[in-house]
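User: Here's a chain of 109 residues. Predict its fold as tokens.
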Amino acid sequence: MYVCMCFGVTDRQVNDRIADGARTMREIAQSCGGAGTDCGRCVKSITAMLPRDESRRRRRELCGEADTCATACESTGPTAEPVALPTPTVVAAASLPDNVVPLRRHSAA
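Assistant: Prediction complete.
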């Protein structure tokens, strides 16, 4: 069955690439002639075909060993750096638009 009509890629081709070791949508696109890079309608179908438990299982295995835990979590975790957010400020009721009513806090009785 065709999963990517733009590039004529079948589920058999995708499964063959997965059997060869492809584990991400990017790897599938590179090895299947660009599948998922044109209109994008096939991305969900192809992603659903990818194995999900392998990275979690590997992370659990490595986290069982204290020396490799940090390395495993760093290599399989998010790649984005934390971003400092500005401190919230209190807005005076006088500066609110006319259609906004400030909330009043009730004192504990």
